[in-house]
Amino acid sequence: MDTHGRGRADDVDPADQWARDPETGEFGLRPASPAARTAVPGPRGADGAARGRTPVRTVPSPRRRPAAPEEPPGRRGRRPAKRTARGRKVLVWTGGTMAFALVAVGTAGYLYLRHLEGNVDTTDVGDAGSSDFSKDDAFNILVIGTDKRTGEGNEGYGDKGSSGHADTTILLHVAEDRSNATALSIPRDLIVDIPDCPTRQADGSTVTVPGLRGVRFNRSLGESGRDPGCTMRTVQENTGIPVDHFMMADFNAVKTLTTAVDGVKVCVERAIDDEDSHLKLPEGESWVEGEQALAFLRTRKSFGNSGDLDRIEVQQQFLGSLMRKMSSSDTLTSPAKLMKLAEAATEALTVDEPIGSVGTLKDIALELRKVPTKNLTFTTVPVEDNPAETVKATVVLDESKASQVFRMIQDDVSFTAVEQQEKKEKAAVAARLKGTKAPASEVRVRILNGGAVAGSAQETLQWLQVDQGVTKSENAGNAPEELSSTTLEYAPDQAAQARRLADVLGLSGSAMKPGESVTNSQGLPAMTLTLGKDFKGAGVSLTTPTKAPDVKKSTADKVTCAG
């Protein structure tokens, strides 16, 4: 029986129902037999010996495996397990969905996936996210860990009586071409504005929870009935990054997932003996699983300055190690481990309805497998101490860096491949911006709002005329359709004007569209500037960042030690 007592038919462990077909090489469900129902094997160690379940709240000594080979980097893994409760969520996602993909290769895999589907809980978040999952587009998934004491043996964790705050939150962006991904941690103590949030009730009605201004980010979930959709809306409101889907899990995820893979290797710069989390580790590398893995993620006072930001770094280090373990041959060739991973993940997961089927989770896993671990970047929203506080307890956005981080994710730019993006951008600019620029006073342009905030066209018109000397400009109202990106269309003989306006607006070469001119209100030929959804305001450059901001980051293929 698993942690929640679900997912076992007739006391048979699904992992033990699989066998390899020697002719096809595929794994399929083993025909049921009386012998298969006589006992339920417990978790097993690397040596094959049965291992009993760890008593609740007891943290075993770390296991040392000096002879174990280093796991080769491979596909992506799970989401970050939650600290305090946080990192676990990410664990479930990256590890469990990978398991879905790997066990679905045979025909019999379909039957087992249907079994798993009954384990997944879903939440209707309305229009807070996307209505479906697309395998052809970039996507953003919000991985949430709460401090609610759910699950067997977790009464002593988190905050007593908590409604389940957003204690750990990671926004995972996966690039459209799957060449890279970014896992952006959002501090729980970040001061944000929480927007009004429509929440779907059990009877089908909708109740709108009023928003809050200048409060901790973690209050976007649980309090006053806020659901994960409220956290999704809060992320978009404060970063400008649209969130497509969410995944959330309970405390048991980190315990069951790490046990399923026989532990995760961690590294600490000095020996740890933490009274609060009961974590004891020697200096250097150790293997942790179950309660001990949860203790590692909950520990705060033994790392760095004992703050939340230091624990985020530890969490990211743990997730990178878990991903390497998930993609190791030791895991990928073991149907027993894959089954236990899939069971653990689905038992712990709550997701939005559009991705609530195991088939869709499998599709997500297959897309994640395409991202090389060396191009999966972990970083944290750039923040600074809240200047309004004497005793520092919260943080605010570091606007000088945060806007660039958000923009890179919005524009699907990799933190590990910025140089390649820079070459592309320079090539586009060289092709379209090379040449002389007309004086600002000679630039004629009509401005349309094609998806920007209402009033943006008039705001841009005033800025161009008053501050930039582009006096032959006019507001042409709304565009016939919305655009995701701002564009400037011009005729061949208007190229010099286009170069000047692109320079003034900070447009990239890719935003410039050679085409036809239009006639303005004076009956003269003019260019057409259409402000898209990416428009951030008059005077804000629209050029895609070509250099990664100066923020702390790491990649999933690197081994680091927590200090």
List keywords for this structure.
6-stranded mixed β-sheet, 563 residues, disordered N terminus, single chain, alpha/beta, elongated
Distance between the termini: 37 Å
Output the radius of gyration: 26 Å
Low-pLDDT windows of residues: 1-20, 24-29, 31-59, 63-95, 100-107
Summed up, the helix count is 13
Beta-strand percentage?
15-25%
Task: Give the biggest beta sheet.
Answer: 8 strands, mixed
Q: What overall form do the CA principal axes indicate? A: elongated
Q: Using DSSP, what is the number of strands?
A: 26
Mean pLDDT: 77
What's the structural blueprint in terms of helices and strands?
Elements: E1 18-20, E2 27-29, H1 88-103, H2 109-117, E3 121-123, E4 139-146, E5 166-174, E6 181-185, E7 191-194, E8 197-200, E9 206-209, E10 212-216, H3 228-239, E11 245-249, H4 252-260, E12 264-268, E13 272-273, E14 280-281, E15 284-288, H5 290-298, H6 308-326, H7 329-332, H8 335-348, E16 350-352, H9 358-368, E17 376-380, E18 383-385, E19 395-397, H10 399-410, H11 418-433, E20 444-449, H12 456-467, E21 472-478, E22 487-490, H13 495-505, E23 512-514, E24 518-519, E25 525-531, E26 553-555
Parallel strand pairs: 3-16, 4-11, 6-17, 20-21, 20-25, 22-23
Antiparallel strand pairs: 1-2, 4-5, 5-6, 7-10, 8-9, 11-16, 12-15, 13-14, 17-26, 18-19, 22-25, 24-25
Helix pairs in contact: 1-4, 1-6, 1-8, 1-9, 4-5, 4-8
